[in-house]
Fold:
Amino acid sequence: MTTADQRPAPATPADTVEAPAAGDGARSPPPETAAPEAPAAPPSPAAGGGESPLRTAVSVLTTLGPPLTIATALMLYFGWARSAAQARLMGLDESLFGFSTRDYVLRSISTLYVPLLAVAALALGWLALHQRVDRALQRPSSRPALRRAGRAAMVAGLLMVAGAVLSAILTRNQNPTPMVEPLVLAAGTATAAYGGWLAGVAGDPGAPSLAAPPWQRALRVLLVGSVITLSLFWEMSSFAAVVGRGQALEIARTISRYPRATAFSATPLGIQAPGVREERVAAGPGSAEAATTYRTTGLRFLARSGGRMFLLHDGWTPRRGTVIVLPDNEQVRWQFSR
Structure:
């Protein structure tokens, strides 16, 4: 019989020793005596740790891709809108010319490079301003002023947008080609968006804030970009209409500088226009066969496109003039002169 003082004491974790498993030669070393880890090897450029020239070039192309795409689309649309406005004032439809994409882009370069340069200059100025704002955000003492500036910019931008929309609604019948409203709408949208962003990032970092879900941020960026892009297209359409009408009036003013076109055909062309004369020209005695040729004079060459020749006559005006369209084939022989 065992007494209470002779009972074995319960084992403590410190006294418990695990027996080595069968087949183990020795007990595993304690944690403090474990071998130190080998230092990690430095990342190689091939593994992505360094910035390769190819990656830098791809990054630059990715950054410049959307602006170049938007600029090309604007040039194509501007060329089409300008040609449509010019043809409309001349009493034609733009589809008669059959211009290609290359023709539209080339027609827009002569008048669109100035607005594009202005947009590029504004973008460079905005980048310089954003760099200064970014440096000021690093100083806690500047955050309150930047927060107030952001809120003021957001309010000013919203007022600009509201004013542009209201003006466009009230003057939609009086001003068929608005020039100011699209610019104010685009500038107001960009100002309000940037002001809202600045007021948010310049807030008190210690204050609790609820971050918007990713889909809401993506939707906000999409809507802002859509409004600015549509405003630019609206502005380009109005500007193209003004340029197209001005080009038609310039043609009427300088019609005497356009090349003279003389048509020779085997049959009468039957052109009924002021100043256009058609006469019969007999073949010379040295010709192989006796034939009669009709010569048409009093024409001015305008354009050649889509298998057609577009001609004007002396004294042409947009209101009282006639545009002559003839097929460009071997049945008519042309002679051009000053």
Remarks:
- The chain has a mean pLDDT of 78.
